[in-house]
Structures are given as C-alpha cells and as structure tokens.
Amino acid sequence: MSDPTFPIEPRTTLDIMRDLLRFTEEYEWSGRENTACHCHPEYTSACPECRVIEGEHGKDSYRTHSPDCRLHALIKETDAFIRVEESIQEAA
C-alpha cells in the first residue's frame, strides 16, 4: 500500500527545502505566552524558540524575533539558500 502523502515521482532537494521552509514559517508563531497575570491568564501567539510575542514591538517591527533566535535565523538562512538555488536554476 502506497503512502498518499508523498508523490510517486522523486522530488528534488530544493522541493523538499521549500516544503520544510513553508512548514517552519507556519510553526514560527505557534507558541503561546501569557500576557496577563498568573491568576487571569491571557495567551497570545509567540515564537516557541525566543518567546517573543507576535507583533510585540509595534507596527514597524511586526514579527520581530530576539536577535539570537535560532528559529528565525534558520528561516532566514533557508530562504536565502532557496533564492540562490532558484536563481542558479533560472540562469542554467
């Protein structure tokens, strides 16, 4: 019995990287942080790695992570890798 999750034709590394980036971006603000007191908690979306609250730093820095956030660094690095690989493919 075949697994319908994966296509029959082999996928490239770039295809897999795109899917992993998409999944990681969806996960980026999946954490929850309490923004109120412990007895009357109010939860909001936050980065599960650096725990920064989504949109916490105002309109101009919406979705800003802490400078040492590993999740955000990975997303930026993977996005840059994909852009370079796509530009190489287009040039070929």
Description:
There is one protein chain. The chain is mainly α. Helix content is 40%, strand content 9%. It has helices at 13-27, 70-91; strands at 31-34, 43-46. The protein has a two-stranded antiparallel ribbon with strand order 1-2. A hairpin with an 8-residue loop joins strand 1 and strand 2. Helix 1 runs antiparallel to helix 2.
List the defining traits of the structure above.
single chain; 92 residues; mainly alpha; two-stranded antiparallel sheet; 2 helices; 40% helix; elongated
Number of strands: 2
Q: What is the helix tally?
A: 2
Helix content: 40-55%
Biggest pleated sheet: 2 strands, antiparallel
Query: Helix- and strand-based class?
Result: mainly alpha
Total discrete domains: 1
If you average the pLDDT, what whole number results? 86
Span of the ends, CA to CA: 38 Å
Oligomer: single chain
Q: What is the molecular shape? A: elongated
User: What is the helix/strand order?
Assistant: HEEH
Please give the radius of gyration in angstroms: 18 Å
List the topology elements.
Layout: H1 13-27, E1 31-34, E2 43-46, H2 70-91
Antiparallel strand pairs: 1-2
Summarize the structure.
Helix content is 40%, strand content 9%. With 92 residues, it is mainly α.
